[in-house]
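Technical note accompanying the year-one report. For the benefit of new consortium partners, we illustrate the data format agreed upon in the data management plan: each record pairs a sequence with a structure-token string. No post-processing was applied to the example shown here.
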Amino acid sequence: MLVTGAGGLIGSRITSQLRQLGARPISVCKLDAYPHEVYRERFGIDASDPDFIVGDIAEPDLMRKVISGCDYVIHAAALADVAACTRRPLDAIDTNITGTQRVLDAVAASDRVRRMVFVSSASVYGNGDHTGQPEQFIEGTAVQPVSVYGNSKAWGEYQTAAVLGGAGISYAVVRYFSVYGEPQVVKERSHSWVVAWFAMRAALGLPLHLNGGGHQIRDMVHVDDIATGTLCALVAPRAHNKTINIGTGSGTSIRQIAELVRSHYPDAPLVETPMPPGDPEGGYASIQRMEDLLGWRPTISMTEGVARYVAWLKATPAAIPDWMRQAAAA
């Protein structure tokens, strides 16, 4: 089982579940999104493991060498931060488009791969139909991305269908909604991963920023459920060549998330801030197709997931990045 992007929160959780199931995951990741101690201490990554390849999926020939020995592929590697993609669109193109093409070319050339899962995102839906009500996103509706990141994921979906469909190789596209969960560590100058942002700021006594007033809607999915849903899509016979939302089917506003975090940190103040560029108004997943094709649905509630994250953070306070501590001390 090849897992690209295996050094991140989601990829590391997928590889952990694969090992528990008795599979042999082969991991590829650049390990450049965090300081190396984060990968080692938070995500349990051992870069000296012979099954862990520190490399760039956009590098010529790397994917062909690795995929030649694999039965299944989960392509999760991406510059997956909306703000970073907006600031650095050429980096997004390098990883999310060029890198994805390298993976697809290698899978198409393989005589062994049984199925590839392409990890996409609810960001492909953009802001939906602007009805003024929380939007339910259904897989068959037209994609309308409003960010560089969303554009790159929409391209990846179409290209996966074109290349692997043409080669007669089974694939599934999974559209992740808002992923959260321990041991998520925030990135500087990012506005993604709101549970981690709010919990870490609250732990430091900093205000919780409600971008745009906090009215955006997110379908929050715990990383354990994301990993399980991805593996279901990898093997479920009815997921063949299908696009599937991975969500809970329930929408939560950013303000509601802040209040859930404040139930553990009652003194944390709320401050309204401007909406950052590329941040969608959001919505929640239609999960009918997921339930029908995968025979599965998430099991971790938002209340439980936030409580788990806060408990982990309180037990692991060193997870709060130094740059955030310095901002709190300034």
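Partners are asked to follow this layout when depositing records. The chain has a mean pLDDT of 94.
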